Amino acid sequence: MIIGIIGENCTGKSTLADAIRDKLSAEVITGKDYLRLAKTEAEATALFKEKLAQTPDDKTVVYVISEKEQFSLLPETAVRILVKADLDTIKERFRARMRGNLPAPVAQMLERKHGMFDGERHDLIYDGVAGDPNAVCEALKAYRGISIKAE
């Protein structure tokens, strides 16, 4: 199963990906990590798309996406999870990442990008503020009959 976790910066994508990794024994690939597969971007992209397309049904790969151009790497059969958070939470989380400082241009960029994925195709929506990652894992189980690891 291929799972695409889609969302803006600081919405909770990595937290959800970690939970899915732990519960479903998934491999997690973030952003442009796939570029490590080859020396050129074109070759790495082709290898990554092939890897996703040939993932067996009994294996789970999570691809964390924060840029629209990365959508083209997901196979059509991927389960897509939109991760959302309110703008104030995103700004606060980003501020924490920047050691308490959120420059005005960065805040404006976050404001411009807020909601940019809302119109994209998705199968599930995850609330990155109050959502329960275990509930998402249970929902994913229904997609392909995956066994959830007991805690």
Summed up:
Strand 2 (27-30), helix 2 and strand 3 form a beta-alpha-beta unit. This protein has one domain (2-142): P-loop containing nucleotide triphosphate hydrolases (Rossmann fold), CATH 3.40.50.
Fill in the keyword field for this structure.
5 helices, disordered C terminus, 151 residues, alpha/beta, Rossmann fold
Any overview of this molecule?
The protein has helices at 13-24, 41-53, 87-97, 104-113, 133-144, and strands spanning 2-7, 27-30, 61-65, 79-84, 124-127. With 151 residues, the protein is of the alpha/beta class. It has a single domain, classed as P-loop containing nucleotide triphosphate hydrolases (Rossmann fold, 3-Layer(aba) Sandwich), CATH 3.40.50. The chain has a 5-stranded parallel beta sheet with strand order 2-3-1-4-5, covered by helices on one side. α1 crosses α5 (133-144). The longest helix is centred in the first third of the chain and has 13 residues, at 41-53. Mean pLDDT is 91; it is low at 147-151.
Rounded to an integer, what's the Rg over CA atoms?
16 Å
Strand content: 15-25%
Name the helicity range: 25-40%
Number of distinct helices: 5
Main sheet: strands, sense, barrel: 5 strands, parallel
Numbering strands along the chain, what is their spatial order in the largest sheet? 2-3-1-4-5
Mean pLDDT: 91
